[in-house]
Fold each of these.
Amino acid sequence: MTGISFGSDNHAGVHPDVLAAVVEANSGTVPAYGDDAVTTEAKRLLRGHFGDSAEAFVVFNGTGANVVGLQSMVRSFESVICADSAHINVDECGAPEKLLGAKLVDVPAPGGKLTVEAVDAARWGVGDPHHVQAKVVSITQSTECGTVYSLEEIRALADYAHERGMLLHLDGARIANAAVSLGVDLGDLGAAAGVDVLSFGATKNGAMGAEAVVVLRPELAGSMEFLRKQSMQLASKMRFMSAQVVALLTDDLWRRNAANANAMAARLASALEDAPGVTITDPVQANAVFAIIDRRATEVLRTEFPFEVWREDTGQVRWMTSWATQASDVDAFAARIREVTGDHA
Ligand SMILES: Cc1ncc(COP(=O)(O)O)c(C=O)c1O
């Protein structure tokens, strides 16, 4: 193995400022389960972005954040409409269905993005006791395909949902990448865009392991403490997780980390733009490049730089960058891709 990994932003280490914050939190005894000053600070900082009525609940991981957030929004006979490519649909081992006890209705979503038309086609049987009742639209921002919803696209989905008594959930495992891509603040992707509950992703943004559910509708927040505990997402020594959130929200570290990740993906895409053996398949708007290359080239390249084969049938691959990716890593990878795909063009 010669090169660094382009397999996932989860392959990166922990940002030194985050580690330092965890070490700093490691002094003395403090109350457990979130009744500590660091968690209070994390909640205050999240309110600073998402608004005074935002209630934040720190959890262990992104799957947990999605499950706990969605649990506050649906009952067993209601459904969650999501993209076919949504992490909740294909990458959480059925955890949402198991723990919500409710149905996910997945719809085709080119580029990973839901549209009002696609959601509307999936919402039927309203009032009919033979059918699940559509209650939540769940979007991912940035998407699993490395694309980003515009504020207008989110607002259109929110308006559609709210006009029908439904709610909008946002999986923000990469919300920082989306905010940087759009040139907006994190809060612009929350209540301001019509989102009701979101997950704030810290792990992929440079944390060691921490996320938060941010509830933007006060009437949904009351059950959250209970749902989090029931879902095994309540940390006893929460200060160490909250410290990670605080570090990312201090001095705009979240923004700097996401900006680097996004810039490195853009650099990779532009280095490969005119490469004869490479077809970039989706707009590169965050920190992932999706491309189709020859399968034999994939085989060779993966012995040198780890990355994911996204679709076996088409040979589509995913190259991801992170807060830690260096320009020199990208340049070396791009040069090698050109070389190897050239051999198999
Ligand atoms: C879009 C999205 N949502 C949620 C998650 C949460 O994952 P985990 O439970 O592994 O933290 C991920 C991780 O890859 C993701 O890509």
Note: The pocket of pyridoxal-5'-phosphate is lined by residues 61-63, 66, 87, 140, 144, 171, 173, 203 (CB under 6 Å).
Amino acid sequence: MRIASLPQPAGTGCESGFRGVVCVSFDSADDTADHDAGGRPRHDLRFTSANPESLSELRSALLRSSVGIRLVLTGSPVDIHAAAAVAAECGLAEEEVTLVSDESGLRVVFCAHCRTRTETVEPIGSEVECQGCATDLEIANHFSRRQAAYLGFAANAEEAA
Ligand SMILES: [Zn+2]
């Protein structure tokens, strides 16, 4: 008698107990092929963006894998940081996750004042107007894994005080 196997989420061929390098790339990036897995087994996942569907696929792939995997995330900051937050949820330590950021892509700035998330292509250290409170935010070189966003503080806080 055969019991039908549980349906597997499409696209995650990561066998359970996989120990190796999981390379996840989001559409804008095309350079994961060059990442050196150091001779370890390698599993590729490709997504168009970090939407709820792809993130849940990533989550199930990570949860099926063993302790000791390495995760390489390639793509725009907004995508890889969303994926990094999922990895953190799944118990991966920061040193097990490598972010290969396409710096020309979108990043998310989390307003320290009104907690609105503003997407921008401006680099770290530059200013962006908060979509919530219209404050000029300086994009801090501080990434919050919990918010999956860069923190933004009023750029003119000192002068305005
Ligand atoms: Zn704000």
Note: Residues 111, 113-114, 116, 130, 132-133, 135 surround zinc ion (CB under 6 Å).
